[in-house]
Amino acid sequence: MRIFAVKYLRAEQDADLKAFTSLDGVEADLVRPLGLGRTLAVVSDPQTHAVLGARVTRALQGVAKIVSVNLPEHPHADDATVERLRAATASADALVAI
Can you tell me the distance from the alpha carbon of 75 to that of 48, in angstroms, rounded to the nearest whole number? Predict the structure, then answer.
């Protein structure tokens, strides 16, 4: 059995930690109450997109307009990636990282 820990982070409140055996079907229920805005960017690399990102993207379509941002395989935390993310998510109110 896999346990998923989901941490809600908001600048104006403390983090809340919840544990689930599966996130399937509860993605929208977890994100909706956070009030993250009208446009969400779902960010993933090819592997995480195939495993979870595509499902989360579909689930969140009822919560907000979705901008899907696909990073290259094995992304690096460098200036070029930061600039690419900034450009790709300029219209988003918040990012959901997979």
Answer: 12
